[in-house]
Amino acid sequence: MNQNSPLVTLGMPIYNGALWLNQAIKTLVAQDYPNTQILLIDDCSSDDSWNICQEYSKEHANITIERNNKNIGAIANFKKVLSKAEGKYFVWCSQDDYWEKDFTSLLVPRLEGDSDSVIAMGRTVIHSDDKQPYEVTILPKSNSNFNSYFSQAFWLMYPFYKKQFIKNNLFLHGLINTQILKDANDSFPGDMLVDRHFLIQLALSGKFLFVDQILYHRRVHKDNSRRVHDLISKNQSHWYYPLKGVFQMIYSVFYLKTIPKYKKLYIIPLSAVCIYVWLISSFKITLERLLPKKVYGCLKNFNNKYFG
After folding, report:
1. Would you state the pLDDT for residue 10?
2. pTM over 0.85
3. Distance of alpha carbon 80 from its chain centroid, rounded?
4. N or C: which terminus of the chain has fewer CB atoms within 10 Å of its end residue's CB?
5. Which residues 6+ apart lie within 8 Å of 182 measured at CB?
6. In this predicted model, which residue has the larger pLDDT, 273 or 237?
7. Residue 126 above 90 pLDDT?
8. Alpha-carbon gap, residue 299 to 233, rounded angstroms
9. For 25-47, how does the pLDDT look when each residue is reduced to its tens digit (9 = 90+)?
10. Angstrom distance (rounded) from CA 124 to CA 140
């Protein structure tokens, strides 16, 4: 352990993740950064997840494991992992994903070199059940950082650039300033239902930095039955959950002390954009049927001109 390098907490909430858990933990252990705390908290898994955690903890002194007395759900378990993080920086590690060995060692210097920064992230490859691995776009313009706090927040609310979908919500899985992340979590009312609404706080608190190298591999699955009864799934089944998320976002931005007062006002146009996107994406067919043809045509042209 190198005490001259800031401690990084690699925190992983776990629930029935035995299928890919070995690979996930193995790539965390293999990080070439010299000062990491690996924190694994199992949420009463019914598969072999807890046994896997125990085996790794016996072999590696920097691994801390814990098993909840009862199942508390994905959101609560994430919050628990974050609350126990001791590092200056934090990575929210998903049990199905894996990381290049220099993920941490390349991102830490970026944050250390810019006192205004809050998150650093690298290029990301998606591994799905039915497709070949493919790289996703996490920035509106390839291989460049955001121009301003407002722009990085805007692209979270309107994640489309030249008809390409921007997966900038994946910054939530980058290297994050732990204290700012904890403050954002404390200021956010209720449970996070939409990651982009939560990330707005961080986007207005500091810079999102980018490293032009593949560092992160994320798995996506068609079968999400592991969490079908979880609070996230239940809340997202309601049609109004995006609106609820907007109110959570507005409240958290005004409450979070790390956001300067003048930047808090950005939430007004950002909320309008968020609601606009929700209406267009959710009620496109309905709007086309209900609105006069000319009105809908103007709305469509406006969308293509300014947001397309």
Report:
1. 98
2. yes
3. 16
4. N
5. 82, 83, 85
6. 273
7. yes
8. 32
9. 999 999 999 999 999 999 999 99
10. 14
Summary mean pLDDT of the chain: 88
| CATH fold for the domain made of 8-235 | Spore Coat Polysaccharide Biosynthesis Protein SpsA; Chain A (3.90.550)
Q: What residue ranges do the domains of the chain occupy?
A: 8-235
In whole angstroms, give the CA distance from residue 162 to residue 48.
Answer: 45
Record the tokens describing residue 10, joined without a space.
Answer: 């690699």
Task: Answer whether 122's CB lies under 8 Å from 213's CB.
Answer: yes
Angle between helices 267-282 and 149-157 (to 10 degrees): 20
* Beta strand segments in the chain, E: 8-14, 36-42, 63-67, 89-92, 98-99, 117-128, 134-136, 160-161, 164-165, 175-177, 207-220
**Taking 70 as the threshold, does the pLDDT of residue 277 lie above it?**
yes
263-272 burial, b for 16+ CB within 10 Å, e for fewer?
Answer: beebbeebbe
Helix, strand or coil for residue 140? coil
**What is the share, in percent, of the chain residues with pLDDT greater than 70?**
84
What is the C-alpha to C-alpha distance for residues 37 and 90, in angstroms, rounded to an integer? 9
